[in-house]
Design a protein that fits this description.
single chain; 187 residues; mainly alpha; Serine Threonine Protein Phosphatase 5, Tetratricopeptide repeat; 2 domains; 10 helices; 72% helix; elongated
Length: 187
């Protein structure tokens, strides 16, 4: 009897159906099987979901190393959420050794794709000088970009940074944010 072979996207959606119990009984073992098929075919969303599953220990023993491996595969393909999660892991030292420079690298990749959470945290890291030289202009810029997407914490961070800046520095930060938005619009 021949084994059915589905394209990666179909394998991914079957994984989702089993993970969430949609039209089939919820079954993490089956979800992992289908996600792994898709992930092995290079499907970044499936790799991300496997990272989440291993981090939580949902249907498998919790395995942070395996979690990081899957998140990194997805992040290396440009998966913004995986990049953000890796940034968070390195920022907090959860599942990996704390490394602010590595955190900034991954947050920046996610922020460059418009992830407001990464933009806001990147603003905080520039504000505090964590993993980067302290820079209120860049902090303000990243906070401003996240605030434009509705982040209240970024609005507060931007306002706090502005209190430490000259009007010229604020103008420079706003110019950089506008340039970033224009560049993003062309991508």
């Amino acid at each position: 009897m021949a084994t059915l072979k589905f394209p990666p996207k179909a394998n991914f959606w079957l994984g989702n159906m089993y993970r969430m119990g949609q039209s089939v009984p919820q079954n993490y073992t089956a979800a992992i099987k289908w996600y792994r098929k898709a992930a092995d075919q290079g499907h970044a969303d499936a790799q991300f979901e496997l990272g989440r599953i291993y981090r939580k220990g949902a249907g498998v023993p919790q395995d942070y190393a395996e979690s990081v491996r899957w998140f990194r595969m997805a992040a290396d393909q440009g998966h913004a959420d995986a990049q953000f999660v890796l940034g968070t892991m390195y920022h907090t030292g959860k599942s990996v050794p704390q490394d602010y420079i590595e955190a900034v690298k991954w947050y920046r990749k996610a922020a460059d794709q418009g992830n407001p959470f990464a933009q806001s945290i990147l603003g905080t890291m520039y504000y505090k000088g964590q993993g980067v030289p302290q820079d209120f202009i860049l902090a303000h810029m990243w906070f401003n970009l996240a605030a434009a997407q509705g982040s209240l914490s970024a609005q507060k961070g931007r306002d706090e940074a502005a209190r430490k800046m000259t009007p010229a520095q604020i103008g420079e930060a706003q110019r950089l944010a506008e340039e970033w938005e224009q560049k993003k619009g062309k991508d």
